[in-house]
Amino acid sequence: ISFNAIDSALSSLKNCQSFINSGMDVATQVALDLVESFNDEEDVNNMEKVMLKYAKMDRELNHYIKAFEETINQVKREKPENLPDLENLAQEKFLEMERNNSDSDLQRNEKYMYFKDQLKEMKKQYHGNDTIEQIDEDIAVTRSQMNFICPITQMTMKRPVRNKVCGHSYEEDAILEMIQTQKQKKKKVRCPKMGCSHVDVKGSDLVPDEALKRVIDSQNKQ
């Protein structure tokens, strides 16, 4: 049995995933733009609905790909004399997976979680704590600027990345170099932020801190 055509179709489906990911990246950027320009909260909420729609599409596509891969592997393993209806078999597996869907699946989508995290940080940076600003604006500004300093280089960050585990941010090149150096010594990296108890910083836990970068860039322009 030749599975070339099916492999080609699966490859095309996987390409569709990259389009979904790109769409989610754009939606995240638009939402951050809206917060930065103090737009209506409803507009931001609409972007969250868009993200959830993308997450649903991503889940469906993952299930469809998985259903077809499992079907092909089953046929290859069992080697039946007569080729079964692959489409029907895959459809049954797909529907079985879809029956177990829940809204919490969408909330756990990695891109959606990143969207929520960055949105929260953006709101914190731009809208902050009004009471602190009313008490002493200088203190508020100083506290905010302290977040701009990389705990490794002690300089204002240009490309901050955020640790998903402990929430601290560092200059991208500096933290990656530290991870690489310690890896060669077969040692773990403790979070360089003073007082942080996280003792195993991994490159896979780092995500671009777009919200912080925007605030730093905005501050630099002033």
From TrEMBL:
According to the UniProt entry, where is the signal peptide? none
Its keywords, alphabetically, are:
Ligase, Metal-binding, Nucleus, Transferase, Ubl conjugation pathway, Zinc, Zinc-finger
Q: SP-RING-type domain: from which residue to which, for each copy? A: 135-221
Please state the pathway this protein functions in, per its UniProt record.
Protein modification; protein sumoylation
One biological process term from GO is: protein ubiquitination
Q: Which InterPro entries match?
A: Nse2(Mms21), Ubox_domain, Znf_MIZ, Znf_RING/FYVE/PHD
Q: Does the keyword Nucleotide-binding apply?
A: no
Similarity comment text for this entry:
Belongs to the NSE2 family.
Which protein, by its recorded name, is this?
A: E3 SUMO-protein ligase NSE2
The record's gene field reads: Nsmce2
